[in-house]
Amino acid sequence: MAKETVFAKIVSGEIPVQILAETERLIAFPDMSPQAPVHILVIPKSTAYENVTELAAAEPETLAEMIQVAQQLADEHAGGEYRLIFNTGAGVGQTVFHVHAHVLAGNLEESSLI
Ligand code: 5GP
User: Fold this and answer.
1) Does 29 score more than 90 pLDDT?
2) Please, which of 8, 28, 55, 97 could form a disulfide with 50 given CB 3.0 to 4.6 Å?
């Protein structure tokens, strides 16, 4: 079970962000510290899941929708090609324990997420 995180405050509107996509189950917004020309986060509105493994087990349809939205965002912002990253665990760089997909596109040479 995820604890209260900064992303819960984004979902609730307590922390304002530029919403790039929204459905009943998820939202997408720009990463505040972009590691690529296009760097968008896609997150479920549910605060119940710390990582993609938990989400896949409990709500596979939400995970599928996150991937569909990632493609739509890449189509809109980056000509359709993108990289999707789910950091899972502090040891590999996960800092926010509310599952999120990093959608990266453009020139990724300088990205610290690779
Ligand atoms: P992680 O390292 O957990 O995979 O990625 C967390 C990401 O969330 C980081 O890339 C970080 O820049 C982003 N982030 C953290 N807090 C905020 C915030 O308040 N607003 C936005 N837009 N991004 C955030």
Assistant:
1) yes
2) 97
- The pLDDT value recorded for residue 71 is 98
Strand, coil or helix: 19: coil
Give the position, in ligand 1's atom list, of the atom nearest the Cα of 87.
4
Cα(35)–Cα(33) distance, integer angstroms = 7
- 102 has catalytic annotation: no
Question: Domain map of the chain by residue range?
Answer: 6-49+60-105
pLDDT of 67-84, one tens digit each?
999 999 999 999 999 999
Q: Using DSSP, state whether 68 is helix, strand or coil.
A: helix
CATH of 6-49+60-105, one of 3.30.1370.10, 3.40.50.970, 3.30.428.10, 3.90.79.10: 3.30.428.10
Specify the pTM. Answer: 0.96
The answer to whether residue 61 scores a pLDDT higher than 90 is yes
Residue whose entry in the numeric block shows the structure tokens 């510290």: 33
Residue 75 CA, ligand 1 centroid: distance in Å: 22
